[in-house]
Amino acid sequence: MSPFDPGSMQTALVPPIDPVPMPPVHPVAGASDRTPVARYLISDLCAYLETYLPPEQVSEFYRAYLFGAEAHEGQSRKSGEPYIYHPVAVARILAEMHMDYKCLIAALLHDVIEDTSVDKEQVAEVFDEEIADLVDGVSKLSQIEFESRAEAQAASLQKMLLAMTRDIRVILIKLADRLHNMRTLGSMEPEKCRRISRETLDIFAPIANRLGINRVRVELEELGFLHHWPWRRHVIQRALQKTCGARVEMVGTVETALKRALHQEEIHGEVEGRRKHLYGIYRKMREKHRAFSEVVDVFAFRVTVDRVDTCYRVLGLVHNLYKPVPGRFKDYIAIPKANGYQSLHTVLIGPQGIHIEIQIRTEDMQRMAETGIAAHWLYKSGEQSTANATTLASEWLQNLLVMQRGAGNSVEFLENVKVDLFPDEVYVFTPKGRILTLKRGATVIDFAYAIHSDVGNTCVAARIDRRMVSLSTNLRSGQTVEIINAPGAKPNAAWLNFVVTGKARASIRGYLKNLKQREAQVLGRRLLTAELGTFGAELDNLDPIRVAAYLEEANQRTLEDLLGDIGLGNRLAAFVARRLAGGDDDEATQAMQADKDLHPHRLAIRGTEGMVVSFARCCRPIPGDTIAALFSPGRGIVVHRSECRNLGSLETKRDKRLDVEWANEPDGEFPTEIRVEIGNRRGALAVVAGAIAELGSNIENVHSREKDGMTTALEFLILVKGRAHLARIMRRLRQIPLVLRITRIPR
Fold first, then answer.
1. Do 221 and 201 form a contact (C-beta atoms < 8 A)?
2. Residue 114 annotated to the active site
3. Looking at 114, 383, 609, 715, which residue is catalytic?
4. Homologous superfamily in CATH for domain 670-744
């Protein structure tokens, strides 16, 4: 008897840890139309693991199941079933990929850190650090507060993707987790279904595709399509059923003809005919702006043979059998896709003039197409195709690290990853014959950064097929590109207008951001040194204790950060110099009071003590308005209402944006404009002006404009103490019978 005995195992269990029946494991999309697979007990899963894992590892897996079941005790899913069903189903998906036992244990425990009282240290103590790292990599950042759901989602995905660069099994667990969640998504609220489906189509299905795991990718896409656009899917499915109903005979005819041709040439191979997946058809219709009737190659046939040279023999055979469509042949064997996928693709004109696609590949290529990077664990054969896929995946993971370093925040990082996950590819050559795969629309600059970040940063010119071209030139497949570099060159901000790859965009932004910070520090040092001279002090001889105290007060980590803030105009060098030089505190207080007297409308502005504040005339903010501000040379802080159009047009200048807030009790009166539409009556202006004065507001200016002979628009510039004061004035004016309409300018 093996160390794992299903019978003894089940009797050893005590409530509440009962043997868990496995949920149905559907094949790839379309399985819902078939007879459901029987539910599996945990014993069935362990018995399956014994087919490729040693008994001691299966026993360790079962111990992890007991640990996870106890941790999730009392928890249930939205569908009502015990929560432990989910991690066991995730482990089953990974078991079908023949993943190692530590990956399977991490799959069983992937939610314990996030959803139970168990922490990473406890998992490491009971099992080991490797398993704990895998579980932690999959867990969301639930302990950190974020300003929005999008930021929280982006930060969790960034954490997962960076953990994936250390261990690719993190993303395999997450893909299996997402796949089972999508299979059971029907119990969720419609809005949550759409959100999760959108995220699946935008992030997880493309990641599965990027890693070459086609089986998982197709099912994620089909389930995402089903839950996010159910009506569109229904329409396409109905149209496809009508088409298939009329062409079933044609599919059988082509399949028979292909098998007969292989037999006549004494080629051993398997032929499989299928219709294309619904989401693939929908995406083609959307991207190429075609109606369903124009998507002609909805039927595909796969021919699987033993060797690579046989693939090319079969290609000639099918071209003799049916006429090929010009320009529709792709050799992914000679030039594999970025995820390692290899196959020959050709489109033929079949019976009745219907276009059909033929895919020709070896058995090893077929395994790679289905399992991608997971084939590294599935076969452990050291085959060339597996090695290529592993190398390509490693290159992509390194690109993720480059993008992470260049991104300003997690949301920007995620956007760069999304760009990188949708490559409609072009294949170009280096002068030494190396093939690079880039997103369609990629430019010379994208090519330079694909080689190395330093090559991109110092790029000054390029040659395509030995001819000089501009750096913004779009690349086409088959071209040979040579980059010309200069030691003193640096990236140009204008490059961001035409680069398309995530690595290039992140590298350029990262370089420019650091460059701007360095320049700001140099300027800040010069400004602060000059101001310190008026106090007879030098920057290098300041009291370290006073400097440290001020840095803490100003919420700056280092003196260099403070200098950069001064250089960017976020702080006044004179004020900082007074504080650092230890000037007379009474004198400083008097200076601040004098500044307050000069500018009574003082705002509480974080990190910008002592700066001059002015108010934008385009929107005239008053206390109570939601506000934002820009730093303007010569004017100091210019405060706008958040909805001001001028603020929006300048929003790209993020280095000039400042966080501002109104003081608790701002002093003084603030100008604002209102438009009052009144009926043309004698004395109307006096009545309105009297009502405004009655509520304690001064009229600075008034302008009248006759509209249609019956009404007049009066535009008042008045002084108010805030929004509440303005609201009282507007309510009072509405009570006047002559007043037809009253609005604030601008709206």
1. yes
2. yes
3. 114
4. ACT domain (3.30.70.260)
